[in-house]
């Protein structure tokens, strides 16, 4: 029979690449459960088949690991179970409740029989109430036949020995900066409730209530932690609202916490670092550029057994850097270490790296073809993004030409021009697009004062009045488009000369940075000329696209 877990149940959650980890159920999202992991404070989404009640599976899943967060996880869940009076398992809790009911009944009977006495002998039974409530949780409930039957069933569902050995070697869990905070909150709550032990079962939701609202937002963070600029701790989500749907789609595709990178990307990082070192002062003054980083980001390699393992990129987490120069040098050191480790592992199957869970994942649960497809898919996605950007730019330039054609010196069609201006306003463009096509900004700027050439056209008065009305609408619509330009290109408000002067200064810097680039390279730019993305794009254009996975 399928097990249905409830909110606040204490369980073991299994995620590939890690040992079964103590966790607390936060919510049920259909076929999957959102859980919060003890010891780290991270949350994740786990299938119901990968959840197991804690008490009756402790002996089976607990590993002799020395990781602090792993040890803390067991300490925290034991305290939580003690406070709640059980782990939420109906089998063990029913036995516990029977024991509790029997205890309460005997206490009431004792009180009734002693009620006529004037003696103060009622005090000792009252003092025994608290320990009798606690005892069934650990002793009586743990020895029930229901437990043995459930344990036998779980043993039948246990993964094969190979999977167990894989999990045993995966003592990898990220060290989160604030992992001790929930533990301290739990202990403070425990101290406050020690005086009211009889209310323990009613107060078992004290810990999760503050987190329930944000459960859905945090549910994917254990699988994907996106870094944009400066890295923060994994249990504090960054502002990724714009990419939330994309991350959810990824989590459906990937049922494990491993993200593969290509050998080519590591070599690109080494080349980029050399480029950065040539302009050290420039890149030390720049903020860290956005990157996608994951706790278990690996370079996949094929072992002699045919299994695909993974060399971990990051041995510390979270990542944090002061500037782009520091980050580039870190990426270089990671690439050099991982590529050297790959050479060592492929030459010797007895390498100490393979047995080190801090550096290596023995099985990433992917075939060689799947790895190649995954890397190829990522490259195609990026090319599609570039194609969409260039399409927007083409539309921007095309609309500019159409508007100029509608508002010529010999004749004018302001109504059509207004429509094209509105189309331009609806486009989703960015600063680099406007810098590449500054003539568009200049044209719209001039149209804010458009009056036409009516005096030379010898128009009848009625037509002239209509044209004047349409010309006013052109000026109004041009002002709206120009306002959007101002929103896209951020400049100081108090700068002398206003937006146009500030934009002109940015344009001069942009053109200076473009020196050394060919006209084709400039037209294909999707980022600032001296940015990391632009540099990697140029590398990619100059080299053949190969996925090297051995």
Automatic annotation (TrEMBL):
Residues 108-118 have a biased composition (Basic residues). CDD domains: PWWP_HRP. Residues 7-57 form the PWWP domain. This is PWWP domain-containing protein. Its main location: nucleus. Keywords: Coiled coil, Nucleus. The keyword Transport does not apply. Pfam families: LEDGF (PF11467), PWWP (PF00855). Residues 119-141, 151-160, 169-186, 214-223, 236-249 have a biased composition (Basic and acidic residues). Residues 94-104 have a biased composition (Polar residues). Residues 81-249 are annotated as: Disordered. InterPro entries: HIVI-bd_sf, LEDGF_IBD, PWWP_dom, TFIIS/LEDGF_dom_sf.
């Amino acid at each position: 029979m399928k097990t249905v877990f409830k909110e606040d149940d204490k369980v073991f959650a299994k995620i590939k690449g890690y040992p079964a980890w103590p966790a607390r159920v936060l919510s049920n999202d259909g076929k999957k459960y959102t859980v919060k992991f003890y010891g780290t404070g991270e949350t994740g989404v786990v299938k119901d088949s990968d959840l197991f009640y804690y008490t009756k599976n402790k002996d089976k899943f607990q590993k002799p690991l020395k990781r602090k967060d792993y040890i803390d996880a067991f300490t925290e869940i034991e305290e939580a179970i003690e406070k709640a009076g059980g782990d939420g398992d109906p089998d063990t809790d029913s036995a516990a409740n029977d024991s509790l009911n029997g205890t309460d009944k005997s206490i009431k009977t004792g009180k009734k029989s002693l009620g006529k006495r004037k003696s103060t002998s009622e005090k000792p039974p009252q003092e025994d109430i608290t320990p009798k409530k606690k005892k069934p949780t650990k002793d009586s409930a743990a020895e029930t036949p229901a437990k043995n039957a459930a344990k036998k069933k779980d043993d039948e569902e246990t993964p094969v020995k190979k999977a167990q050995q894989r999990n045993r070697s995966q003592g990898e869990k990220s060290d989160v900066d604030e992992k001790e905070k929930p533990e301290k909150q739990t202990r403070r709550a425990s101290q406050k409730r020690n005086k009211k032990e009889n209310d323990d079962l009613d107060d078992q939701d004290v810990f999760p209530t503050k987190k329930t609202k944000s459960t859905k937002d945090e549910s994917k963070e254990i699988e994907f932690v996106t870094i944009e600029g400066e890295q923060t701790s994994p249990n504090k989500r960054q502002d990724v609202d714009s990419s939330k749907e994309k991350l959810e789609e990824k989590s459906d595709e990937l049922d494990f916490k491993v993200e593969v990178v290509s050998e080519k990307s590591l070599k690109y990082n080494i080349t980029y670092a050399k480029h950065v070192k040539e302009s050290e002062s420039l890149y030390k003054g720049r903020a860290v550029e956005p990157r996608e980083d994951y706790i278990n980001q690996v370079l996949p390699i094929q072992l002699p057994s045919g299994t695909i393992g993974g060399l971990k990129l990051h041995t510390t987490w979270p990542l944090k850097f002061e500037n782009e120069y520091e980050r580039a040098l870190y990426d270089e050191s990671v690439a050099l270490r991982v590529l050297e480790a790959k050479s060592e592992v492929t030459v010797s199957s007895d390498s100490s790296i393979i047995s080190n869970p801090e550096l290596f994942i023995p099985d990433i649960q992917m075939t060689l073809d799947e790895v190649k497809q995954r890397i190829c898919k990522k490259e195609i996605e990026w090319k599609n993004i570039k194609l969409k950007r260039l399409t927007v730019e083409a539309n921007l330039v095309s609309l500019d030409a159409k508007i100029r054609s509608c508002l010529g010196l010999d004749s004018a069609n302001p109504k059509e021009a207004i429509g094209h201006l509105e189309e331009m306003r609806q486009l989703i463009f960015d600063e680099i697009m406007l810098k590449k096509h500054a003539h568009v900004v200049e044209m719209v700027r001039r149209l804010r004062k458009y009056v036409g050439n009516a005096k030379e056209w010898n128009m009848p008065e009625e037509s002239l009045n209509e044209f004047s009305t349409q010309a006013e609408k052109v000026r109004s619509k041009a002002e709206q488009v120009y306002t959007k330009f101002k929103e896209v290109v951020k400049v100081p408000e108090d700068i002398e000369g206003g937006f146009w002067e500030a934009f002109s200064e940015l344009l001069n810097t942009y053109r200076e940075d473009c020196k050394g680039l060919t006209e084709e390279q400039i037209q294909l730019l999707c980022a600032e000329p001296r940015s990391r993305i632009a540099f990697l794009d140029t590398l990619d254009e100059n080299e053949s696209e190969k996925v090297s996975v051995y």
